[in-house]
Request: fold
Amino acid sequence: MEGTRVFVGLPAGRELVESTQAYRRAHGGLTARWVKPENLHLTLVPPWQCLDVDTVCRALRDEAARQSPFEVIFEQISFGPDPRRPRLIWATGADPAGLPEFARGLLSATGAPGEPRKSFLLHLTIARFNSHDLMAMGQRKLREPVSWRGKLDALCLYESHLKPGGAQYHELCRVGLSGNVESGL
Reply:
């Protein structure tokens, strides 16, 4: 199947980017590939091969017009997603009201394959690593309380290019929540 490998996410706002960068500076000794500030996001629809980007961007515009921005609070930094075999460092917190339902609606509106998630975990990936990197970190435990607050006020369709050094993302369209179009096609 041809097409463009895409996913839908909420880009991290300025406050969250600043919090992640401060954490990175304070933990520079961790052996990890830090997510670039411009790539920080919350994934709402996981990657799929999209055959019609224009149609998906129009669907995102329609969905964003009905959705207010989300206020999020991240409460902890830890290894994830599986604590027994971690591969990333992420911030987690409680889901803001309406976010899981919004994600399910986006899956349907975009025509992306797959079933809606039964549960939703608010998380922001801030770094990735492999098992060798984990050994270099001394197999340590990571569980740090934080109080990161931010506003998620845009919805993006990202193109994802898988590279040996990690995925690279490119915004294909961005729409402000509540129908405020920021850029796009």
About this structure: The mean pLDDT is 88. The two ends are 24 Å apart (CA to CA).
